[in-house]
């Protein structure tokens, strides 16, 4: 049940993360800019999680664990999102997204090196299928070298975030870790928003999009991811997270009328196949 619960939690996380681009599109349409969106996303999420932390009477993390959580938020989340948003200025969204989905490879390699995790044949096959599927979904690629480098570094930063999170989650609850991570990222984006000028929502649609980003695209997926990460490990969590682009593509097609090409369907099928292989493998593995 522990593994099944972990798989379910990561699935919920990936599906929720897949809504971020959708809500972001509505937010940008209402006149918001990237820094303001991310400041509201992490700042208000931090306030909510801190309130929840007080209600649960859980202590605030301290010492080395606190420092690691601050690094995960201020460096991990901020670094990855900043590089991703900057990379799309120099390269196509397809190229950036493809390179960002190299992170399951990085997580697998880092897990073998630092966590001594066994990389089975099933995991390798699922990893390749998921990456090929992601490549087909994001479509044609083009761009300058600097954009490609930024996207690769963004993937590496996110991979390190997952590896560090694997150890941290052995000492704190998802609520404790999320409160610190959100607050750290919110503080950094708050300073960036102050320097660049804030562009808050001008209408009801904008604020509804912000609420969606906070609860559906941030609080739910981050907490479920961290909880699932502790149950099934970093490589499996990264692998299962590749269902995220499927959710994004389907929602874009439904809400905005974006064309769903046959190659996208093939890519989605490969990712789902990878998830099924990994899920069956995990459920058949006896807990030690």
Task: Provide a quick synopsis of the model.
This protein is mainly α and 288 residues long.
Give a structural overview:
The chain has helices at 2-17, 20-29, 34-55, 63-87, 93-100, 103-114, 121-138, 145-168, 174-196, 204-232, 234-240, 244-256, 262-284. It is 80% helix and 0% strand. It contains 13 helices and no strands. The longest helix has 29 residues, at 204-232. The protein is mostly helical and 288 residues long.
Topology, please?
Blueprint: H1 2-17, H2 20-29, H3 34-55, H4 63-87, H5 93-100, H6 103-114, H7 121-138, H8 145-168, H9 174-196, H10 204-232, H11 234-240, H12 244-256, H13 262-284
Helix pairs in contact: 1-10, 1-12, 2-10, 3-9, 3-10, 4-8, 4-9, 5-7, 5-8, 6-8, 6-11, 7-13, 9-10, 10-11
End-to-end Cα distance, whole Å, is 13 Å
Name the helix and strand elements from N-terminus to C-terminus, one letter apiece: HHHHHHHHHHHHH
Main sheet makeup: none
> Structural class of the helix and strand makeup?
mainly alpha
Count of separate DSSP helical elements: 13
Gross morphology is globular
| Strand composition percent | under 5%
Mean pLDDT: 84
Low-confidence stretches: none
Fraction of residues in helix:
over 70%
Radius of gyration: 18 Å
Number of strands: 0
Question: Which terms summarize this structure?
Answer:
mainly alpha; 288 residues; single chain; 13 helices
